[in-house]
Amino acid sequence: MGRPLDESDLIGRAQRGDTHAYEELVYAHQGIAFRTAYLIAGNAADAEDAAQDAFVKAWRALGRFREGAPFRPWLLQIVANEARNRRRSAGRRAHLALRAATEQPSGDAAPSPEASLLSAELRDTLLAAVNELPEDQRTVIALRFFAGLSEHEVAEALGLPEGTVKSRSARALERLREPYD
Amino acid sequence: MTELERALVALGRELDIPPEPDLRSRVRERIERRARYRRAAVLALAVLVVAVGIALAVPPARSAILRFFHIGAVTIERVDTLPAARERSLVAGLGSALSLRDAEKSSGVPLVLNRPRPRRFYAQPGLIATVLHYRGKSVLLAEFQGDQMGLTKKFVSPDTSVEPAPIGSFGVWLEGGKHVLIWQGASGEIRQMERRLAGNVLIWAEGDRTYRLEGSLNKSEMLELGRQITR
Predict the structure, then answer these.
(1) Rounded percentage of chain B residues whose pLDDT exceeds 70
(2) What domains, with CATH codes, occur in chain A?
């Protein structure tokens, strides 16, 4: 899945009502949108609904999108809001789990350097510690490391100052370091 | 990146995250359905505006029409007896003052205001408001989007004049006499938030948004301010 060559052109066309251009934007960003929603909502059905609703709301709000601004963080803010609303209304915490089969996903010829860092025991311990984090810290860690967002994108998605994301991340890493060490 | 951070990245790859669904067709279907609906709604509104415009020009018809009608999220109703109300601050019932960012987040309504922005904003679900200063007077600007928030304005004829105003897709100007404003939040059931006596008011609809300005400006001043807000 590749990003379109000229996203600003697609955005401009979508702002003028071109649904095909917007469909290309959806295609380019649906992976990160769904992953972000899943990490916040903790449930596939809610994540799918949240991502879909977010794309529809983003379409409606395109007229207010600032020309030249990055599309991804703007979109992820809408996705994160939708996912949080669903999590709140469900009244539960997102609980992350490992894949049932922990072999390398098909297509990966060899374990990545990062994957080789983790023994099964360490993986379980670390995940349990992440799941035990306070919700605000867990969300920052999940978006930063599991969704691969930059600190700036996490801040945009959660509507927080970047300094708050840094401090939540630092506090969370401090908590996680203990079981890891 | 520290060893712990690399371990978290590795852990992320082993999480049980379902494969991403292809959302393109469902998103396209929804936005095209909405576009069809909006085209039909615009046509219906255009017909309504013409009909109301014609009817407002005829005094007996004007009187009948102005008994009860809606503009966007606002209902205007003529009653025989005003509900009990008293003079209150322009922002009474709108909650505590917030920053723009917090107010937009809390209301779900991005502010449209093409003028220097004040510092204090107010929010309810579906409504964002602020107090502007124009020609030396305070004016409450409220913007509504969606159907979570509404207001009802009750007035007693003939003290209050209600007339069309040339702004947005449809506008109305209310001036003089005692009229009562009732803010209402709807979340399942209607929740009445505040009732108070209101000043001169300009209400207009534009796109999917309803704007309301209230203060002691006259009609031409209020129209001037209203047009600056959305220009």
Answers:
(1) 63
(2) 1-92 (1.10.1740.10), 113-181 (1.10.10.10)
